[in-house]
Amino acid sequence: MNEIRFDSYYKYDEITSFIQQWAEKYPQLCQYESIGESYEGRDIWLVTITNQATGGHSDKPAFWVDGNIHATEVAPSSAALYLINMLLTGYEEDERIRYALDSRTFYIVPRVNPDGAEWALADKPKFIRSSTKPYPRDKQQPGLYEEDVDGDGRILQMRVKDPNGDWKKHPDEPRLMIKRGADEPPGGDFYRLLPEGVIEEYDGLTIPMAPSLYGLDLNRQFPLNWSLELVSSGDFPASEPEPRAVVTAVVARPNITGAITFHTFCGVHLRPLTTGPDSDLPLQDMRTYKKLGKVAEEMTGYPAISVFQDFAYNPKQPIGGTFDDWMYEHLGVYAWTTEIWSIRRQAGLKDYKYIEWFGEHPTEDDEVLLKWNDDVLEGKGFVPWYEVEHPQLGTVELGGWDVMTTWRNPPLALLEAEIGPLAEFALYQALVSPKLEIFKVEVTAQGGDIYRIRLGVENSGWLPTNVSEMALKAKATRALELSVEVGEGGELVSGKRVQEKGHLAGRDGLGAFGIWTSNPTTNRAVGEWVVKGAEGTEIVLTADQPRGGRVQATVILGEDSGE
Asked: How many of the other CB atoms lie within 10 Å of CB of 536?
């Protein structure tokens, strides 16, 4: 097997090869399947990881991870691949990983949007938001659109001399561009700053930005708070094959108890709601989200924040159709959008606003960032300005940040250190799921061929079997069922064959009042039946709740009770 390295961003065929080799090398732990095809016809691979010797994947609580739904955000694929590799290679030596794969399942989709990533990683790249499907129009409109003009494999910035431009060179650092003063008259050494690209239907005078020919945002496609008012949302919820594949796969796996979708960038864990403040969440859910977020921050260094309160592009126009909102509000599981990497944090900037910073920030911040580039990246992340002949504008200069591998994604030398802790948090969140265990089986002879049977079940996990209060509100998961199957020759005398027991509490809600908190057995349930059968008759007892798992015990009438 070719050993995977985390100092490269891999194309689709390479990722496919790694997945196939893992499945061949670790057949007891790793399986894969296609959950659908992309717009251009590529398989969207889902990797299932669990120890099949301890039970099927659907009989265990599961955790969902995906990445790279946005085209240029390729580090998320690396994060997902790192998690797969960590779980498989660590099973024999790492007790925590072994316990996780023996008792839980991981569903991992390394690349939701293979088409867009192929464009981003091409020798002559094309940077788009998400899908390669033309939308909402099928013809390029007039104006400037991003393109690798000089064929060097990068899309940089373009500066064009203009006496009424809005930018000028930094007086002490000519690589940096700063805003022209509001009171500075025209005629100076000013520039217009534009993305590197070409101009469709150039009139020789004006340079409008062309509306994107590829305007679909696949993370506005999920069937919650979807709206046609969002130009990028598509024709209807899950109209596009990539989000439809994810939705179908998730719904078909009711054992999913939580999720992380990896994006870039900003170095932050985002929690729902996208459409409202924390006060709109059920109180217990808000508390649990914040507890998980505190652990996430401790493990990864990324703060955990509310999308609506701290990360909104425009608070008056909240976005809809996002994966994490759908997973939480529709399915009632704690889902996160993890925005990998922050060049600002790496450079030492603090107390900046995640989104507002891009609209306006001190020039000193740019100086700090450039110094970090020079010191840490040996100057390779920021390209000094150089002249090229533009097909329409004549002599222009290209340069500035190589955004693809400095802002949108970690520089390759820093990639592994960045994504390693994220895998650890995914493992942690999988292990806080509910987990059904049988703690007691009693078989008591009543005389003749009559036996009284009791089955005691408990939730040993941190989360309750419903996972969240939102799940109860949405009726997103069914209650615990205890059932009995009587073998040939026997019969059920009393007690319903299938007994519904509601949901079992976890440990997430305990300890709110310190030493005054009681600890009742709300995490336990008991089923009771009376059966008739000759000695040696087999009785199978089952506890089944999708998010807590499925466990069984077999007893033989006339013998000692067992688990």
From this structure: 12
